[in-house]
Amino acid sequence: MKTYNVGIIGATGMVGQRFATLLENHPWFNVKLLAASSRSAGKTYEEAVSAKWAMTKPIPEAMKHLVVLDAEKDIDQIAGEVDFVFCAVDMPKDQIRALEEAYAKAECPVISNNSAHRHTPDVPMIVPEINPEHAEIIHAQRKRLGTKRGFVAVKSNCSLQSYVPALHPLMAQFKVTKALACTYQAISGAGKTFKTWPEMVDNVIPFIGGEEEKSEIEPLKIWGKIEGDQIVDATTPSITTQCLRVPVQDGHTAAVFVSFEKKPSIDEIKRAWAEFKGEPQDLNLPSAPKQFLHYFEEDNRPQAKLDRELEGGMAVSMGRLREDSQYDYKFVCLSHNTLRGAAGGAVLMAELLTAKGFMD
Ligand code: NAP
Predict the structure, then answer these.
(1) Do residues 15 and 94 touch, judged by C-beta distance below 8 A?
(2) How many domains does the chain have?
(3) Are residue 126 and residue 22 in the same domain, yes or no?
(4) What's the 90 CA to ligand 1 centre distance in angstroms?
(5) Mean per-residue pLDDT for 132-144?
(6) pLDDT at residue 46 above 90?
(7) Which residue's CA lies nearest to atom 45 of ligand 1?
C-alpha cells in the first residue's frame, strides 16, 4: 500500500492531539505537518502544546520538533506538501466553512471533525460502517468546487455515535419508527479536562449548546440517500434527545428508548447487533474494529471507564436491553467520543476514502 503525507489542522486542540497520537504509527498515513492558529504558529509542536497536552500517551517524538504552521495563512504551502488534511478547529462556523473550502479548492482533500459543513448537501457525513456509499457524492461536490482532487468530507457529531450504530442494523428489517436518547457526555467533548474545567468535578450540567439539535437532525443525513447532486435526508425515524454533560473525562453514554413498525424479539436485536459488519470490516481497514457492536450481559455494563477503550476505542457497546412500557425497548450504549466519535472515526473515514481511490 502506498503511503500518504497528511497534515493536522487544529493539531494543538483536544481532537488534534488525538489525531497526532492515532497517526503516530499509522501504516498508510505519515504526518508531515501540523497547523493551528496564529497563537501557536512559529512554535515547535512541543512548545505550542505542552501545557495543554491531555493525552495519556506522550507527544509523538517525530512531531515534537515540527514547527506549527498558521492554518489560515499557510494554505498554499500546506496544500502543496500533503496529500490531504485532517481538520478540527475551534472557530466561528462561517470561518471554518471558508477555511475548509479554501483547502479543497487548493486541491487538498479535507477530512473534517467540524460541524460547519455537515449540512452542505454535497458534503458526505460518513460513519464508515453505515453509509460508505455517500462517498460517491464527492464527484458532484468536486464539480461544484471546480476541483480535480479537492473535497470536504465530514464526521458526524460525537453524541450520536453510540445510538445511531445501535439502531442502524435494526432499521431495514424492523423499521425504527421513533427513538428517544438521553446522552451523558464526557468533558473531553468540550475540548476540556478536569484541570481546565474544575466546575465539572462533582457536577452535572443539563445543557450543551446546539447538541440536541445535532443529535436529532444529523442521523437523518446519515440515513439519507444520494439524489442527483445532493444527499437528501431521511424523514424517519423521529428522534428526540436530551444531552447532559457529566463528570467523565472520555466516553459518551446514551440511554435509548426505541419503537419499531415490526417489533423484533430481544434475541433478534442481539443477533442483529452481533452479526452486523460494514465495509471497514470487509476491507479490513487498519482502524476498523473487528467487531463493531458489542453487547454486555452484565447489568452494570457498559461503563465509560471500563469499556470506552474497547477495540482501541473504535467499537460501540450496548447493554441492559429490555422491554419498556411506553416504547418497545430500552437499552444503554457507549462510544468513545474522541476516538470513534472524533479523531478515530475521521481516520477510519480517511482510510475508507483512500481505499475507494478518493485520495489519489
Ligand atoms: P480545542 O481543544 O479547543 O482545539 C481547537 C483547535 O483549533 C486548536 O488547535 C486551536 O489552535 C485551533 N484554532 C482556533 N482558532 C483557530 C484559527 N483561527 N485558525 C486555525 N486554528 C485555530 O477544540 P476540540 O475539542 O479539539 O474541537 C475542535 C473541533 O472538533 C470543533 O469543531 C469541535 O466541535 C469538533 N469536535 C470535537 C469533539 C471532541 O470530542 N472534543 C468531538 C467531535 C467534534 P490554538 O491552540 O493555536 O489556539
Answers:
(1) no
(2) 2
(3) yes
(4) 4
(5) 98
(6) yes
(7) 37
- Same domain for 108 and 221: no
Whether residues 328 and 192 fall in one domain: yes
130 and 24, same domain (yes or no): yes
Active site residue 252: yes
User: Could you tell me if 141 and 282 lie in one domain?
Assistant: no
Domain assignment of residue 282, yes or no: yes
Q: 146 and 254 share a domain?
A: no
User: At a CB cut-off of 8 Å and minimum separation 6, what does 199 contact?
Assistant: none
134 is catalytic: no
Q: Which residue carries 504509527 as its cell?
A: 25
Residue among 39, 63, 90 to mutate when testing ligand 1 (max atoms within 8 A of CB): 90
Dihedral (CA of 315, 316, 319, 322) sign: negative
Q: Does ligand 1 come within 6 angstroms of the Cβ of 8?
A: no
Task: Report residue 306's pLDDT band, with 50, 70 and 90 as the boundaries.
Answer: very high
360 in a domain, yes or no?
no
Sign of CA dihedral 221, 242, 254, 305: positive
Pairwise CA distance, residues 50 & 58, whole Å: 10
Residues belonging to the chain: 360
Cβ contacts of residue 272 below 8 Å, gap of 6+? Answer: 169, 170, 173, 264
Q: What pTM does this model have?
A: 0.97
Q: What is the pLDDT of residues 263-288, one digit of tens each?
A: 999 999 999 999 999 999 999 999 99
Q: What is the pLDDT of residues 59-99, one digit of tens each?
A: 999 999 999 999 999 999 999 999 999 999 999 999 999 99
Q: Cβ distance 117 to 87 under 8 Å?
A: no
Q: Answer yes or no: do 177 and 319 share one domain.
A: yes
Phi, psi of 294 (to 5 degrees): -115, 140
